[in-house]
Amino acid sequence: MAELVSLKREKELLVIDDLGCGALIGLERFGLEHEPTVGESIAAGADLVCFSGDKLIGGPQAGIIVGRADLVQRIRKHPLTRMLRVDKCTDIALEHTLRLFLDLDRLPETNPTYAMLAVPLETLRRRARGIQRRVLQNAAQASLRIVEGKSALGGGSLPATPIKTWLIALTLPGWSAGELAARLRRHEPPIITRVADDAVVLDMRTLLPGEDLELARAVITTAQETPRY
After folding, report:
1. CATH for 2-116, among 3.30.470.20, 3.30.1490.20, 3.40.50.261, 3.40.640.10?
2. Quick count: other Cβ atoms within 10 Å of Cβ 146?
3. Class of domain 119-223
4. Across the strands, what pairs with 202?
């Protein structure tokens, strides 16, 4: 960034920093490596910073541009803004989410994204064992292996920054991994998984505490069905 800012001043250019995920706070408190925050990018000399309203902010899907007031005003007046601007519902949801960052001490309690990041590994393993126990009590034919893994925080500013987690590798007799994943997606609410090594993989870090029972019920219900494929 320092070299770009120096070149900007020399050539009278603009520096636009696309942070992607757009961290608003330092993530070291969650055991992650430091990533430049939006504020640090502006302080370093970026004229505009672009980032997502979802991902590390935990709000609705939206694109955010911050920076020099005169440049933001020019963007606001551009004809394309009318086509690309978010609706009022997104505005309200984003404002509510951003207000949560005014109280960083309570952020893991108020923002689900940071609640997931803050859960200790041992807590995740204990919850995984609870799901495993409940499912096997009602569907003994299921196989649930609890294994260590990594959660991916996404692209943009954190393209390859993993965070340790515990996974449940699920298989059911008569179901391929793809079929089982598709069935869980049709559950209400849908359960989004990933497939690896011929098993459906459930990341405990992506579950809020109140969702453990719902997940166990979905697996039990599916285990009692005949594959449709």
Report:
1. 3.40.640.10
2. 16
3. alpha beta
4. 168
- SS3 of residue 65 by DSSP: strand
What residues does CATH 3.40.640.10 cover in the chain? 2-116
Residue with tokens 């394309």: 80
What six digits make up the tokens of 89?
């519902």
Kindly report, residue by residue over 124-141, the tens digit of the pLDDT.
999 999 999 999 999 999
Instruction: Give ranges for CATH 3.90.1150.180 in the chain.
Output: 119-223
Whether the ω angle into residue 159 lies within 30 degrees of 0, i.e. cis, is: no
Alpha carbons 195 and 215: distance in angstroms, whole number: 16
Write out pLDDT tens, residues 53-93.
998 899 999 999 999 999 999 999 999 998 999 999 999 99
